[in-house]
Every structure is written in C-alpha cells, then in structure tokens.
Amino acid sequence: MSDLNPILSGSAQSIAAYQEAIEQSTQAVVQWLKQPEMYQGKTVAELRERINLEFTSQGLGNQAAIERAVEYFLKDSLSVHHPQCVAHLHCPSLVISQAAEVLINATNQSMDSWDQSPSATIIEMKLIEWLRAQVGYPAGDAGVFTSGGTQSNLMGLMLARDAFFARQGHSVQQHGLTGNLSKIKVLCSENAHFSVQKNMALMGLGYQSVTLVKTDAFSRMDLNDLAQKLAEAKANGELVMAIVATAGTTDAGAIDPLADIAALAAEQQIWVHVDAAWGGALLLSEKYRHFLNGLELADSVTLDFHKQFFQTISCGAFLLKDARHYQLMRYQAAYLNSDFDEEQGVPNLVSKSLQTTRRFDALKLWMGLEALGKKQYAEIIDNGVTLAQQVAEFVGEQPQLELVMQPQLASVLFRFRPEKGDTASVALLNQRIGDALLASGSANVGVTEADGVTCLKLTLLNPTVCLEDVKVLLASVVACGQQLQNA
To answer: Could you tell me the mean pLDDT of each successive run of 10 residues in the chain, 487 residues long?
Structure first.
C-alpha cells in the first residue's frame, strides 16, 4: 500500500501524516478567512470550465490533493462569515463547532449502535433530555439528532401518519398503506417549508394530500381559515392526519399561533408537528422566548442547529413528545439492536432514527453550550432579532427603499423602489439587483416573494454584524438599483 495516504491510525507514520494534512488545511483556511471578498464572482459556466478532476493511477499524495482542493474549492467558496453574506439561513459557525468537527471526524463514531459509539450515545441521549426540558416536554429521551429540518419533518409526518392508522387498528409498518388515500390530508400554512409537500410525496400520499391554510399580513397561519379548512375537510369526508405549524418561516421568520393551533387540533385528536428549524433558536433567548409559547403542546418538533445556533452543517434534531409512538417505527436487527441488548438496557439509537450510519453531530451543540454558556448563547441569538428591528426602522427612513413586512425573527424583507415603474418592472429590477451584487462578489442578498411581491431579503444571522455593516450593504443595493435603472 502506498505510504502517501495512510489510513488514520495509531502508527507514527499515520499520526505524522494526519498532523501535516491538518496543518496544511488549517493554514489554507486561515488565509481564506483573511480575504476581503465575499466571493470571487465566477459564474456557473466559468466554474464548470475551471474545475477538472485528476484521478491518476498512482495518486497525487496528500499535499498535492490538498493544494488542488484549496485552489478549486476553497478559493471559490462563499464566505458565509462575511458581513455582506445575508441571503439565506446559512450561518457562520462557532469556532468551537470547528473544533468539534475535528473530534467527530477523527473518531468516526457511528450513532446506530452503542458498541460503535459508547460515550457519544450517552452524550446525545442526555442532550435530547436537555432539549426536551427547554421545549417543556415531560422528562425522557424520545428524540434523535438528524441531518436537518427536512429529515426531522419527515419523521414527524411519518409518525403522525402511522399513529393515524394505528388508531384505526392498522399497522402501516406491517401491512402498508390502505383505504382511500386521497381522503387523507395534512394542513400547513401557505408559507410552510416545501419539505411538507416533499415528504408527503415521499410517503406515498402525494402533493394532493397537502391543504394550504391562508396566512395573515405577517405570514402566520390564519386561525379562522384553519378552522374553516378543518370544517371543510370533515364535510367532504376527508381525514386530517396532521397539522404542521411553523415557528420561523424561511422568508418572514413568521411564527404561527402555536397554542391556538394545538387547541383546535386537540378537539379532533389531530397530530401537531411544529417545524421550529429556525425559530427553535429562541428556546435559549432571554428576550424572545415567549414567541414559542405553545411549543410544548406539539406532538413532535423539528429543531435545526446549523441556523441560528451557529453550528456547522449538518446538525438538527427531532423531538417526540410521547415516547410510545416510537414503537410505530421500531425494527430490530440482531446485528444492531437485538432483543438481548434491549433486555440489558443497552441504548442503540438506530431504533429512533431514519438513518442507520449517522454522525455524532450532537457533540457540536454540546461543546457550544459548554463553551459559551446559556447567557452568551442567548445574546448572540437575540442579536439577530434585535438587529433586524433596527434595520427595518432604518429602511423605513430611506426614500428609495421600501419595507415589505415588519421583521419577526432575524430577517428583513424590503425592496428597491424606483420613482417610476409598474409591478413587473420593479420586480425584475430587484431580481437583477440581487444577481448583480452576487456576480460582483461584493454581497449575497436574497431574492424572494412576499404575498406576490418580489423583494430582497436580509437574513441577519451573523452575530458579528452591526447596523453600520448593514447600512453599507443597503447603500450598495441603492447604488446598484440606480445603475441598473439608468442603464
């Protein structure tokens, strides 16, 4: 075997190679962090032309492979820590999260069985217990870390579906779907995450199973329309499997009225799943925790930590209020989670997860909480929400900018507003502003729609960004808008 790329092990040769490779990579990252540009500005076509794979028969060796990765990947990566990078729910990461990645990657634990991840299993279980307490759930460890919101939402919907059939004496796990499936519905708001439709299709019920509930002026689920949709479903002989509420919509950061939704659902024994992938960060907030009142009433909850918890991708969690529902997806394999293990009290987390092999991503959140403490964590989470309010006030004072909606979490929806122009031309102009700023490499501003209005979006997750940084960005938006308008 070639000595250019040894397997990571306890040998002197391997340890030396590991240290050299990590040092070379670290130094490259340090240099990349220092570059002033947010993005080098290459187009899709330019990147396709530039990037070529070179898999030789003998291999290039670690040093050359890292050099090529730096040249073709790192240098052309988006600087998510840059103060002008504000388009998406794409956060800069905690330094301690980077350190956690080193430990996670080097140990390469797999979270499916205890004998593959002994200490990691216990840490994850204890962290799930802690997260449940923050939500207001009963004591227990029903929950698991996931790859993110889409997977957590799938778990919530899948268990809601199986619980729905179980109440009718039917096991989906054993016998599959049955009956008139076109009558089964899931309700969510018009602004819910697309993964609701995606997951319902994946579960064999299709997009047609998703009924959209109207939203109010702040993109929150409208309770009157929810009640009406429930009544219409009943009148049509339809069966509502679940209601998906959102705590932090992707664009507006809207939080649905969780307690009221849960009350309506309880009247008809309907499962409530809350997608709190973004808004769940307020569990740690000192100023805005009350925005999540009613979260504890949900049957299941999605949390993401690679958003406003500032962890590296990927890091999410699924919490299940009543542990007995895990029986609906229980499967035993002698080589992973045997009867003998269960009798002995050995925790094999594969029983709680859709994944088998799974990273120990829980370590990142654990180390983050230990390193920062709850107070500092709360401060950096609250910073984004407070900053969004300040930015909205500033936007309202600018003659060429228009605030589209008052912020609720850490996002600001606005648009460049020329003196003249119909709706279509103003929409196109704002789209072109977003495209031009990214092409220049100076800024990454989101382009989206709110109630049919094409607008720009600032997602202010970065705790190092201040109002003055955003003013610089907004000045660029105005300058770009004027230049495009004149052209």
So the answer is: 71 94 98 93 91 87 94 95 94 97 97 93 97 98 96 97 94 92 97 96 96 96 98 97 97 97 96 98 96 98 97 97 89 62 80 93 98 96 97 97 96 93 91 94 93 94 96 96 90
CA distance 122 to 128: 10
**Beta carbons of 470 and 391 less than 8 angstroms apart:** yes
Class for the domain spanning 110-359: alpha beta
| Other beta carbons within 10 Å of 385 | 22
CATH of 381-486, one of 2.40.50.180, 3.40.1160.10, 3.90.1150.10, 3.40.50.720: 3.90.1150.10
* Chain Cα centroid distance, residue 405: 22
Residue 149: phi and psi, rounded to 5, are -60, -40
> Which residues have CB under 8 Å from 275's CB, separation 6+?
149, 152, 153, 156, 192, 193, 195, 196, 244, 245, 246, 247, 248, 302
Q: Tell me the pTM.
A: 0.94
